Automatic annotation (TrEMBL):
Its EC number is 5.4.2.6. One of its GO terms (biological process) is carbohydrate metabolic process. Gene3D superfamilies: HAD superfamily/HAD-like, Putative phosphatase, domain 2. The lineage of its organism: Bacteria, Bacillati, Mycoplasmatota, Mycoplasmoidales, Metamycoplasmataceae. The active site is at D27 (nucleophile), D29 (proton donor/acceptor). The record marks S135, K166 as: Important for catalytic activity and assists the phosphoryl transfer reaction to Asp8 by balancing charge and orienting the reacting groups. The keyword RNA-binding does not apply. It holds the Pfam family HAD_2. It comes from Mycoplasmopsis fermentans (strain ATCC 19989 / NBRC 14854 / NCTC 10117 / PG18). Mg(2+) binds at D27, D29, E190, D191. Keywords: Carbohydrate metabolism, Isomerase, Magnesium, Metal-binding, Phosphoprotein. This is Beta-phosphoglucomutase.
Length: 240
């Protein structure tokens, strides 16, 4: 029988010393909804025009990176030689975002919420837990609006306001600051390795949505198999 969640053994002794959790900081893609296939579809179209063959497996390796960093990482991954200046890079990123937005408007709606997420948000609100989104996506407000859950969130961090994207800790530190809470009063939820790395650098506890890939998230505080197992009544006794 698969475990619903796994607590890192070396962290167990620390739970009793944690202060009461007052805020949850969510990543967006892969935690609230899954737009990865739409990102991939848009990136594939952009780089195919440059003669680059780009696979889903390669796209998975770059999840969680900001838009510009993703494009440059694709170039590096595929050993694509170019002499593009900043203007050209920005044009490609803008074109990708326009494609992605067109896919969002066509495919994303309330039914696109991942299983268990709306109930989890309701339970957090019932317990007066503050909720934030810390996503590298500039489209987070639009996505949350289309999903019908934007009113659950007290803070939606604008990624433009941070100097460095994940795996740097900046966006989580800004979320914590905007929630007006201490680091030890917050927990972040991520499905990307770079996101967990960012939380660790921020000294904020982490819950990793592993989708069965527990071995990739050994540095997370708490491992959850998928969002359907993200059950507040089960997690709350561990955190408090």
């Amino acid at each position: 029988m698969l475990m619903v969640w796994t607590v890192k053994l070396q962290m167990k002794s620390k739970f009793s010393r944690w202060k009461m959790i007052k805020g949850i900081i969510f990543d967006l893609d892969g935690v609230i909804t899954d737009t990865a296939k739409l990102h991939y579809k848009a990136w594939k179209e952009i780089v195919n025009e440059l003669g680059i063959d780009y696979s889903k497996e390669e796209n998975e390796k770059l999840r969680g990176l900001p838009r510009r960093d993703t494009l440059l990482a694709i170039f590096e991954l595929k050993k694509f030689k170019h002499n593009f200046d900043d203007q050209k890079i920005n044009e490609l990123c803008t074109k990708k975002n326009e494609l992605y937005l067109s896919y969002l408007k066509k495919y994303i709606n309330k039914d696109s919420l991942l299983e268990g997420i709306e109930q989890f948000l309701k339970d957090l609100k019932k317990d007066k837990i503050k909720i934030a989104i810390a996503s590298s996506s500039l489209n987070a407000p639009l996505i949350l609006e289309k999903l019908g859950v934007i009113n659950y969130f007290d803070v939606i961090v604008n990624p433009v306001e941070v100097k460095k994207g994940k795996p740097a800790p900046d966006i989580f530190l800004l979320a914590q600051e905007q929630l007006k809470l201490k680091k030890e009063e917050c927990v972040g939820i991520e499905d990307a390795v770079v996101g967990v790395e960012a939380l660790n650098k921020a000294n904020i506890k982490s819950i990793a949505i592993t989708n069965g890939n527990n071995n990739l998230f050994q540095k997370a505080t708490l491992l959850v198999q998928d969002t359907s197992k993200l059950i507040w009544d089960l997690i709350k006794p561990i955190l408090f």
